[in-house]
Amino acid sequence: MRIKLSTQGIVLGFMLTLLVLLGFYHHNIQRLSTAITLYDADKIAHNFLSMYQHFTAKRIEASAKPFYFAVHYQSLPETFEYEGETLSLETFLSDTQTHGLMVIKAGEIVSEQYFLENKADKQHISFSLAKSFVSALVGIAINEGHIQSIEQQVTDYVPELIGTGYDGARIKDVLQMSSGVKFNEDYGDFFSDINRFSRAIAFGTSLDSFSASLTREHEPGTYHHYVSIDTQVLGMILTRATGRSLSDYLHEKIWQPMGMQDPAYWLADDQGVELALGGLNVTLRDYAKFGWLYLHQGRWLNARGESMQIVPQQWVLNSVTPDAPHLQAGENNPASSSVDGYGYQWWIPLGAEDEFMAKGIYGQYIYIDPDQDLVIVKNSANPHYTDKTQQWGAKTIALFRAISRHFAEP
């Protein structure tokens, strides 16, 4: 017996099927839409302040005993110099679509500015600032005996990476972005590995599976090539070694003892695995606390005047010391893809005396100048970030150094 379907019936059936599919995949479609338009000029500012609302995220509660910096607001320099040109600070902050700028000098907030949609209690996406938090957790895990040594193989803790690009790499190699893994980190290339990774997150793809898909390009420990997935692998090592999620471990070891005053959010895949390489969402003041911790070599003085070593001192010192030729700063280092130096997920800018920094795409910075007792935090949503002719990074460092000189003791 044949059943004849009317055109209306076919259309109705198609529409019902479509509605079911849209309902089932609605969250993924929303995430994919956000991922694809993440850096669009008319959306970027809002997106960077609401990432944890669009993607799966794990909440890290604020400290039960929050710490607050003293406040002594002062003026910033109106201009700074870059390659013989005088630039306006106000114009530069506008051109880079700055969301927040904070300067801490001698334990006091001397400047705190919010722009566009940002406010003191709003969490801003970290991007690669998160890498430096992960590095701190690795140092703590080693101190607690969860990880024996950074000379161990990655596969000692993550055996599922045997036979992948990470087979044969040491933990130290991934800490120093020298794993040898092949990876295209160009955010301006829609088909780059990093943008493929973003779309994988939108679809809920396992982050661990994506990490296992990469192949080898260089001998581990010989060439500095910035590969964000290296930090994802560090996250895999941490969770296997500690038996804890990154969010739980961060909450106990850093957020609570440091008195972080606001909750944070860590983006995660559909299996609950955190985006170790760049998924933290943190307020400006709490980013600044982390910078202040590293300025004091991992030691923290809480609101009651109690001093505690949160991150081992030697780990902090090692983290900001390039210890091999391929990690040294320089314009023409043949074994590095960067002009800046690199440690354990921390950058040492070209021409640094003692400065070091955490850095994330589109203008995220925690800049630390120990001999000036100074920390600068900048959150941004620069829609022109991929325009390499503008030298945004070099100009930003010039600005930070001008601010540091401005607050230097006479």
From TrEMBL:
**Domain of life here?**
Bacteria
Q: What keywords does the record list, in alphabetical order?
A: Hydrolase, Membrane, Transmembrane, Transmembrane helix
InterPro entries attached here? Beta-lactam-related, Beta-lactam/transpept-like, Diverse_Enzym_Activities
Q: Which residues cross the membrane?
A: 7-25
One GO term in the molecular function aspect is: hydrolase activity
Please tell me whether the keyword Magnesium is annotated for this protein. Answer: no
Q: Name one Pfam family in it.
A: Beta-lactamase
- Beta-lactamase-related domain: which residues? 101-384
Which sequence ranges form a coiled-coil region, renumbered to this chain? none
Against PANTHER family, the record matches this protein to: BETA-LACTAMASE-RELATED, BLL8153 PROTEIN
Q: What is the protein name stated in its UniProt record?
A: Serine hydrolase
Name its species.
Paraglaciecola hydrolytica
Q: What is the lineage of its organism?
A: Bacteria, Pseudomonadati, Pseudomonadota, Gammaproteobacteria, Alteromonadales
